[in-house]
Write a structure and sequence with these properties.
- By secondary structure, the chain is mainly beta.
- It has helices spanning 124-129, 159-167, 219-226, 230-241; strands at 15-17, 23-24, 27-32, 35-38, 41-53, 58-66, 72-79, 83-84, 100-103, 106-107, 111-118, 121-122, 171-175, 178-181, 184-195, 200-207, 212-215, 246-255, 262-263, 266-274, 285-286, 293-296, 299-307, 313-323.
- It contains four helices and 24 strands.
- Strands 5, 6, 9, 10, 16, 19, 20, 22 and 23 form a nine-stranded mixed β-sheet that branches.
- A hairpin with a 4-residue loop joins strand 5 and strand 6.
- The chain starts with 14 loop residues before the first strand and ends with a strand.
């Protein structure tokens, strides 16, 4: 979690910071033999973007204008963050299966590209030949409360196949009778869009985010990774937890810089964050900006005109954990 410096805002459930690759703004794209690739489309401008992030929902609205006197047809792609099997038991994620697209208010069917990567190498075809699920990890969960799934993926494998997967670093033995995926999943949703000459096209999409989870390791980590100011955080922590425990966090990443593949800049940009919890139980600090405006209980927004994203953002939702320094 690589973070820069910034200032505190107020009490809320979020901390913004600069992340590793993550959820992304729409981009123009092409399709080659090796799959999707992002590309520039300078004849289309993003006149406005409204991005709303909460722990349970992400929604974004765009207005695109074709600046030319001809129709422009291109693939529009929305890559999501790479995600991996969580061996710690933090499972039951949404896997982005509820991703929806609307264009000018009407639902639009979309396709998706799914890849299973280990060290940047795509092993999707091999895993599919073996009948192993790639995008979802439900079938690999082995928990005492739930027991093994009825269709254990390992039962499909010969000893030679299993040994090969282990040797090549695609799976690990989580227990003597079960395997765990060692690959990361990338999913990119895409559709073909025509932008009429000189016209505005409004695109919306929404989905349930796949957050990362963790326990704050120390106060210095909070200040370094999330730009939390010592004095204000200590006062909040003392009030809400007696000062003995550090908070847990959920974090959601989002890539803003893919918007730069369209004609720059974004005419009007607004980001809204909704903590979705009682104000006194949460905390906010921002590495992304200093000029947040409070628009409701645990709701903040920031606006820009002529905006060219130079960095991406990470949103931390802090609550009470059971970890001490």
């Amino acid at each position: 979690m690589r973070i820069g410096g910034a200032a505190a805002i107020a009490s809320a459930a979020i901390v913004l910071a600069i992340p590793a690759p993550a959820l992304a703004n729409d981009s123009a794209a092409g399709i080659a033999a090796t799959g999707l690739y992002l590309k520039e489309e300078r004849s289309i401008a993003m006149e406005s973007e409204v991005l709303r992030i909460s722990p349970t929902r992400i929604a974004v609205e765009y207005s695109f204008r074709n600046l030319t006197d001809r129709n422009v047809t291109t693939v529009v792609a929305f890559p999501i963050p790479a995600y991996s099997y969580d061996i710690t038991g933090n499972w039951g994620h949404p896997y982005y299966d509820d991703f929806q697209v609307r264009v000018d208010g009407r639902p639009v069917p979309h396709q998706e590209e799914v890849k299973a990567l280990v060290d940047g190498v795509d092993h999707s075809a091999r895993l599919e030949r073996l009948g192993l699920p790639i995008a979802r990890f439900d079938a690999y969960d082995d928990r005492p409360m739930g027991g093994r799934p009825p269709h254990d993926p390992r039962r499909r494998l010969s000893k030679q196949q299993l040994d090969g997967l282990i040797r090549d670093g695609l799976v690990i033995l989580e227990c003597p009778t079960c395997i765990a995926p060692a690959w990361s999943v990338t999913r990119t949703f895409y559709w073909t869009q025509t932008f009429p000459a000189k016209a505005v096209v409004r695109v919306e999409h929404s989905y349930t985010p796949y957050p990362s989870y963790g326990v704050t390791p120390s106060r210095p980590w909070l200040r370094r990774a999330a730009c939390v100011p010592k004095g204000r955080f200590d006062a909040w922590n003392a009030k809400t937890s007696g000062g003995s425990w550090l908070p847990r966090f959920r974090s959601i990443d989002y890539i803003l810089t893919t918007a730069n593949n369209w004609r720059q800049p974004i005419g009007s940009f607004r980001l809204e964050i909704d903590g979705g919890a009682a104000e006194e139980h949460v905390f906010v600090s921002s590495c992304f900006a200093k000029d947040w405006r409070k628009i409701g209980p645990n709701r903040f927004e920031i606006s820009r005109t002529g905006f060219v994203p130079e960095r991406d953002l990470k949103v931390y939702f802090l609550d009470h954990g059971r970890s001490s320094d």
